[in-house]
Amino acid sequence: MNTCRVAVIGAGYWGPNLIRNFSACPTAKLVAVCDKDAARLGKVLANYPGVEAIADSAELFKRDDVDAVAIATPVSTHAPLALAAFEAGKHVLVEKPLAANVRDAQAMVDAARRAGRILMVDHTFLFGSPVRKMKELVDSGELGEIYFVDSVRINLGLFQHDVNVVWDLAPHDLSIMDYLLGTLPKSLSAFGTSHTPSSSIEDVAYLNLDFGDRLLASFHVNWLSPVKVRHFIVGGSKKSIVFNDLEPSEKIRIYDRGITVEESIESRRGILIGYRTGDVWAPHLPGGEALQEMVRHFVHCIQTGSTPVSDGESGLRIVRILEAAQHSIKAQGGRITL
């Protein structure tokens, strides 16, 4: 397959970004865009005269000139649309999170396997050079033993009507954590609350994940913060990484700072803690849009049969964490075992 023929389902908030990037992808051809809102569809496709507008996804799945679909619709619709696409023999890219619950996410993974088709989740940050560099540093052992992950993703708005702040914002950083560590936490505890009288949808939340072996991870997500913060820290025994996505040039910095632990000669004096302060440096990061790299990776996996970096299994792991966090919030921070 020299060119992968793609259709995008959903022309709302995220759909136009996928439309733009599939149109620019040299190995893909954007064939059609599907949305129930004819006015919105016409507006979005005004700059894409060769792309067909379709109102009904069922009609789209019947077409022989579509190899793959990208789903950018409300999370509750991800599973029904993906399952129908696999039934029709299409490859599927799904906007994060993969599904609204573990049951649906598992059904999507199973359906993709039965159909022999690619299922990939649009965890865009995994395809940007900062996170790729972080992965390289973690895998090389340069950080030493990983002690903690600490993430803050806060801003004012954009309130969602179908999911809370955890399902909206946390998948970004949970997917980065999953990519770097490659394992599920053993347990988690979460707290969250709503500050809008007419809604029970949480707009502020805190997640604490315990991986065992002295590794902890914490996540703060917030729709009410007066300032926008995007910090992701990986702390190791040798070095640490700080990823600031709002920094225009030096998005990641490596800190040669930490502690040294020595046993005292005299047992009664206990353990001696020393502090190490070394260099701070910012590695060169190649340019390029992460979403374009994600789109190209999706097409490459279809053409070669490769397993995507953000495959269905990784998306399922994130949904397991999200669902457990939701249960913990409703249980006033009760610890949930994964």
Termini separation: 40 Å
Write out the strand line-up for the largest beta sheet, numbering strands in chain order.
Answer: 14-13-12-11-7-10-9-8-15
Looking at the structure, the CATH topology of the largest domain is: Dihydrodipicolinate Reductase, domain 2
Number of helices: 9
Task: Sketch the topology as an H/E string, one letter per element.
Answer: EHEHEHEHEHEHEHEEEEEEEHHE
* Number of strand segments: 15
Shape: globular
Rg over CA atoms, rounded to whole Å, is: 22 Å
Helix content: 25-40%
Q: In the CATH hierarchy, what is the class of the largest domain? A: Alpha Beta
Could you say how many structural domains there are in total? 2
- Beta-strand level of the residues, as a percent range? 25-35%
CATH superfamily of the largest domain: Dihydrodipicolinate Reductase, domain 2
Biggest sheet descriptor: 9 strands, mixed
Low-confidence stretches: none
